[in-house]
Design goal:
alpha/beta, 10 strands
Length: 279
């Protein structure tokens, strides 16, 4: 891995993403670049005005202008703050600021990197929100590179938990994670969830065999359950002290499930560790 692109916002998850990107860059010998955006589109939208509410409309307009000016001023500070924070880590880095066509511009920037690291609440609105934002969903669904999505907390040490069901998306995610050096010197823990334990174990063994060829030691775990795979993954991520969860698709809906389904959404919104996803 040579290049990591990290979204630069002013939320706890964005700060965590920056620290995680630095750790991965050290682990893999990669360069870190930042990207932020001046986006006030949410403040430019017209609001309904009640009958006789001219003064109300004027006050709301002035309030939105004030918020937009404050956001512009804060966004202008972020690139220098990003560069200084990485300089403190002994790294030279640049941070680009997009000002138009943010979503498509971000996709074009993603083409030039190996990995995207983002806080799950990144939207370039400088506000922490619950769960994954539409912008992060866009990056995962439309971007051409693997993405690591983190909440406000991450740890540098611990095994890498792999959610693996033998599907093509899961196999691709595992391969890309191995080739990019995501595992580093950590052990992998492969968790296969199925209706029958013997079948789940066979699936986990194939993943373990693949990682062994890449010099990565792995522990295997097969679970037979018809319950929610998301709840099982969240529980095992906490119990094993994992530092990251690698996942492709799982469940009967395949890629549709991993990008848009409730299982994956629940994981993104609640995972106690960063999620590596590739589709």
């Amino acid at each position: 891995m040579r290049s990591i692109l990290v979204t630069v916002d002013d939320t706890p998850s964005a700060v965590a993403a920056r620290g995680l990107a630095v750790a991965l860059a050290r682990q893999c010998g990669a360069q870190v670049r930042g990207v932020t955006a001046l986006d006030v589109s949410d403040l430019d939208r017209a609001e309904p005005v009640p009958i006789g509410g001219v003064q109300y409309a004027y006050d709301r307009l002035q309030h939105r202008k004030k918020l937009a000016d404050e956001r512009r001023a804060r966004i202008a500070e972020l690139p220098d703050e990003f560069r200084r924070s990485l300089a403190d880590e002994g790294m030279d880095a640049v941070c680009a600021t997009m000002e138009a066509d943010v979503r498509e511009g971000l996709l074009r920037m993603i083409e030039t990197c190996d990995l995207v690291v983002t806080g799950r609440d990144a939207e370039f609105h400088l506000e922490a929100v619950e769960g994954v934002t539409p912008l992060v969903h866009h990056v995962i669904a439309k971007g051409c590179r693997p993405v690591v999505v983190t909440g406000p907390e991450w740890v540098e040490k611990g095994p890498v938990l792999v959610a693996y069901d033998g599907s093509a998306p899961a196999a691709k995610a595992l391969q890309v994670a191995a080739l990019l050096g995501i595992f580093g010197t950590s052990r992998a823990r492969i968790l296969s969830i199925g209706r029958e334990q013997s079948a789940a174990l066979s699936v986990a063994e194939r993943a373990g065999s693949f990682l062994a060829r890449h010099g990565i030691d792995a522990d295997l775990e097969a679970v037979a359950t018809s319950g929610s795979p998301a709840e099982m993954l969240l529980r095992r991520a906490s119990e094993t002290g994992a530092r990251m969860l690698v996942m492709g698709a799982f469940g009967h809906r395949g890629v549709r499930e991993i990008l848009f389904g409730s299982t994956t959404r629940h994981l993104f919104d609640n995972a106690p560790v960063p999620l590596f996803i590739y589709h």
